[in-house]
Give the backbone structure.
Amino acid sequence: MAPNGKALLMTDKYDTGMTVRRSVLGDAHVDRAEAAKTDFDLPFQTLITEGAWGTVWASDNITRRERSMLTLALLAATGNFEEIPMHIRACARTGATKTDVQEAFQHVAIYAGVPKANHAIKLAKQTWSEMEENS
């Protein structure tokens, strides 16, 4: 239910967003996120599914590989480190390579600061190590 008591309608953007989200992040991640969803965060989850995944990530104007690089660089540059591991794991589905990520973080170092890039690199290395251990 929406805050006004009316049922939230699932839109084409929502359906597209959920398809893209699953494609990029994987079913297991999305299933965990969906299971954790509550009435409190339902409007927010709908917003990001429609906006981020159903609009931005669904656009075919640039590749998903390029989107991964941009997303990782922006997360690092703005200090939003919590989502970097999730997007490093997504690179396996988007085609962004370790070299691509390295290049993105080098841009971060020059334009947003070495400490931010350094921390992002640390998180990427940890995530890739975990991925290799679990494969």
